Amino acid sequence: MTTLSPFADPNQRESEANSSAGVLTPSTSHHGAHTVTRSRRSSSIIQHLEPDTLDTKIDQALNPNVNASWVNFKGAWVIHIVLILFLKILFNFITVLDNDWKWTLTNLTYNIGSYIMFHQVKGTPFEFNSGAYDNLTLWEQIDNGDQYTPTKKFLMTVPIGLFLVSTHYSNYNLNLFILNGVSCLCVVVPKLAISHRLRVTLY
């Protein structure tokens, strides 16, 4: 049995008492005047980002977010239609493909690019606002995170409309319908309010 010295450090006496009682406590390491506590990592694969702190909100308000403000211009809306038409014309040159596959590939290519751009890449391509947007995707930065603004409604409507067009021109083929439908869901679901600041970690 271990005898505890009355002159020992209170933390040490508590640790020794817990050890003798079989109680496990988080380990700590001392570096100078700082104490670092090692906590267990969360095993959940679905997590929500914590709300922004007051300091982060102040940093975000210092300058306009030029990384996200451009999507509100009408020219930025038109470019989505132009890109879709460009992709369709590009796939038309592949003569071995049927028209249903040309529309399906147009849909898939647009949705993959859209997902990477709006929901995969985080932060900004340049340093400003003291890194206040480093943990946010472009979609979460648009309109300061407000949901269902005119811009966000338009960006949500485009993949849905493209899905309907692709389904129609693929003659409602079941396999292509499923492929187009899953692709559409992958870019629409992250745009919903329930997915705001949601993170899915698979590793």
UniProtKB/TrEMBL annotation:
Region annotated Disordered, chain positions: 1-42
InterPro entries: ORMDL (IPR007203)
UniProt superkingdom: Eukaryota
Record-annotated membrane-spanning stretches: 77-97, 176-194
Localization, UniProt: Membrane
Keywords: Membrane, Transmembrane, Transmembrane helix
GO cellular component: endoplasmic reticulum membrane
Membrane topology: Multi-pass membrane protein
First-listed, main subcellular location of the protein, grouped into a coarse class: membrane
Metal-binding as UniProt keyword: no
Composition-biased stretches (Polar residues): 17-30
Annotated Basic residues bias: 31-41
One family name in Pfam for this protein: ORMDL
UniProt xrefs under PANTHER family: ORMDL PROTEINS
Protein name: Protein ORM1
